[in-house]
């Protein structure tokens, strides 16, 4: 992890290689990005977001995606002290790689499963489990991150390719 990354770590993290999976765009000044959040209309079964981040050049975006791949090799599990709960023991996270769709100029996909200790704010619940699925796709100088947060009832859900593919095509057209 670079000195810049260490300075931008959000809080105490047990594995410095994992910082990119908490805050992948940790630059001064912040790169231009657009975030869109949406969710299921029925029973709040899932939430999702897309983040488009513009890099200065295709080479810069390719380097960022390569750095994320490299970080994945050194980051499988980590712990963040007190990120969501004031006096609790914090959040434990496990990353697992999954098959990335053949989209864009390069792609990476992974799952991030978190267990957050909330016992200090809710004595009846020791911890809350959250599963997030990320697909990161580079198209030229843009990195598109597709995040899906399904509920436990739809744990196997992936970000719908029928939503992702048209966005990737539009990015190709804008080059």
Automatic annotation (TrEMBL):
It comes from the Bacteria. This is PknH-like extracellular domain-containing protein. It comes from Streptomyces venezuelae.
